[in-house]
Amino acid sequence: LLQGGTNWVILLVPPVLVVCLVTALFALYVRALLPEYLANTRHILFVIFLVHIFLLAAKFLVSQRVLLPFLFPGAALGLLIAVALQPQLALFTSVLFSILLSLIADGRLDVLLFHLAGSMLAILAVGRAERVNAYFWAGMALAAGNTGLLLSLHITDPVLDWPGLFQLLGAGLANGLITGSLTLLGLFLLSYVFDITTTLQLVELSRPDHPLLLQLLRAAPGSYQHSLQVSNLAEHAAQQIGANALLVRVGAMFHDIGKSVRPEYFIENQIETVNPHDSLDPYTSARIIIDHVRAGEELAHKYRLPQVIRAAITEHHGSVTTQIQYQRALQEGANGGTAVAIDDFSYPGPKPQSRETALLLLADGCEAKSRAELPATAEAIDKLVGSIISARIQQRQLIESHLTLADLEAVRLSFVNTLKGTFHSRLKYPEWQAPPDGSAEPDTALSAAPSS
Questions:
Q1: pLDDT tens, position by position, 139-187
Q2: DSSP label of 351
Q3: What's the distance, CA 364 to chain centroid?
Q4: Per the CB 3.0–4.6 Å rule, which of 10, 138, 143, 318 could disulfide with 125?
């Protein structure tokens, strides 16, 4: 019995130590380089779930096999994490998984190199994966890379004959096709389970025929145009600081969908000179304006928008104050001798929790103020953008967004350049006048005539 117990200890201790070491390395990596993932339980669970599923599958398919280790789609783990979360995390996870996989395959060096190189190649090849064919091309690149690597490793192997070599090469080719297909299927299934938004989903949401975007366009056309401008501002800034530009663009398109419920209470939708807020007390006016966030969140739940888009709706105002209504209330309170609670005029928040929603907060403020002030010079635009960013810093709206001072400077320059293109000067065309001799061309006269 003692001898049997000793055998169990000898068998269990090495793999347990390896798993503990790999887990510790993964935790240190995330803590040091990707601390934002520590607060996101869903993302961590997603990675842990995938690693365990792939390890379990490898235990049955790879251990003590000759050909199956090269047919096993280990690179799909890296692809799933790269597309669903980010490439850096996928690369590091793939390195650790390849080490574990080689141990399952009895420590074979060729299995380690095959899966390590294949995972890296597939992650780099898939890119942003904005189209379905990106997975096909990633699979083809992986198949080609697998074939080349296996050929270089085993072409001089004296034990392997030509039929065996062709079987290995066939397994490498099939591995690429299986990996691409499995990644696409896995993303389709797991993205709903873990509420992870993929690039393909964002591309689909960005279509202008989405029911919510059509509702915003028809009910609140001014807010729709405002969303387009915010999208342009924020997307370009996101590219400058390495944030998720596609997520920012889609989030900007949906951030004000709540205004489609009561569009007439927002200045960009008021065609007539009458402003309904003029007949309201400041408390009611503020509640109506602030309520567009709650209305937008309800619409997002109704249409099952993903969490990252709902965050753009709820965080794009942070906890800032509706200044016009607040100042009116202060003035009326001073005249009437009543105290004014600032919470009655503040958005409920939360403050931006990511760089992407922080960009929406800043872009939303800059676009709205630029439309109100119509800056005519580059200096005026620079001053306007700087005032919005400084105000949001002083209001402590960016403290949870992970934006650095270097990021904010890059954002400022990006906003200024984009707004310069929006408010560029144009020549004023003179009114058309008929020649004194009345010899105007018929088509010209017709085009210049006012429409009835």
A1: 899 998 988 888 887 777 766 667 777 887 888 889 999 999 999 999 8
A2: P
A3: 17
A4: 138
Cis peptide before 350 (omega within 30 of 0): yes
Kindly tell me the burial class for residue 174, based on how many C-beta atoms sit within 10 Å of its own C-beta (0-12, 13-18, 19 or more).
Answer: middle
The backbone torsions φ and ψ at residue 349, rounded to the nearest 5 degrees and listed phi first, read 85, -165
Which amino acid, residue 159? V
Global pTM value: 0.80
HSE value, Cβ hemisphere, 13 Å, CA-based, for 137: 11
Tokens of 218: 């028809």
- Residue tagged 């066939």 (tokens): 170
Residue found under tokens 């869903």: 42
- Name the one residue in this structure whose structure tokens are 């997002």: 300
Q: Is the pLDDT confidence value at 132 over 50? A: yes
346 beta partners: 321
Report the DSSP beta bridge partners of residue 321: 346
State the DSSP code for 127: T
Of 370, 384, 328, 308, nearest to 85 (Cα)?
Answer: 308
Calculate helix-pair angle for 162-193, 109-126, nearest 10 degrees.
Answer: 50
Cα separation values, 223 from 10, 176, 186, 204, 430, Å: 68, 46, 37, 21, 32
197 φ/ψ angles, rounded to the nearest 5 degrees = -95, 120
User: Within the chain, what is the greatest distance between any pair of CA atoms?
Assistant: 120
Domains of the chain: 9-193 (1.10.1760.20), 207-422 (1.10.3210)
> pLDDT tens across 270-318, in order?
877 678 888 899 999 999 999 999 999 999 999 999 999 999 999 999 9
CA distance 76 to 435: 73
CB atoms within 10 A of CB 140: 15
